[in-house]
Automatic annotation (TrEMBL):
Name this polypeptide is given: ABC transporter, ATP-binding protein
Domain ABC transporter: 24-250
ATP-binding found in the keyword field: yes
Keyword annotations: ATP-binding, Nucleotide-binding, Transport
InterPro entries: AAA+_ATPase, ABC_transporter-like_ATP-bd, ABC_transporter-like_CS, ABC_transpr_LolD-like, MacB-like_ATP-bd, P-loop_NTPase
Keyword Plastid: no
Species in which this protein is naturally found: Candidatus Methanoperedens nitratireducens
GO molecular function list: ATP binding; ATP hydrolysis activity; transmembrane transporter activity
Domain of life of the native organism: Archaea
GO annotation, cellular component aspect: membrane protein complex; plasma membrane
Amino acid sequence: MINIAKEDHIANEYPDGTGKQALLRIRNLCRTYIMGEVRVPALQNVSFDIGREDPEFVAIMGKSGSGKSTLLHQLGLLDTPTSGEIIIGGENVLKMSEAQKARFRLERFGYVFQEYALLPELTALENVYLPAMALGRKKKECFKAAREVLGQVGLGERLDHRPREMSGGEQQRVAIARALINKPDILFADEPAANLDSVSSKQVLELFRKLNREMGLTILMVTHEPEDRNYVDRVIWLKDGELEQHMEMLK
């Protein structure tokens, strides 16, 4: 079994509001879209902390159009906020150049989306090792790491299968393995079970909970399914682009 979480990526000296070490600190985050002469505020002054000492599985919830996916895209550096701060280890990552952000994403973040985004002509193993190759790791090392993470998500016997030869649930687990290959600090998941049947959806959520509880991986997941709250530690509720409330769930 591999250890997903990295040991020393995040600085230790940056506490959150409780005095605990902060993995991720969001302050007054705003995102406004300009459509012609119309300004559409998608996020308005969103602030919260994600601690480091006790890795969390956090759900971001709210009605359609509340800003859930927009928030996730800002946190994952897939889009640029209009204003505000995203602080990791005491550093405002929004001040990085685009090249620095790209490297940071590749090294420190993992992403899982509603669509699996697998390359159809490649096997599961080949799809998974691509992000490791992008970091310049040796091919032999990449293959070994890909085998390990595919085994971790329960697909150790499907290494040579292509996407068309796998179910939707299996394809999503390949996508999760791909997100884990570079041992990220944070996994961002945007409606990861939306295209899955109830059985596969449960498997994916149980896998996320296992990655969080047993391997110390912080996970931020957008979902609209009320029952998904049963799997997470905390819910961040959005309403009209604003932070409505936090809800701590029982572990």
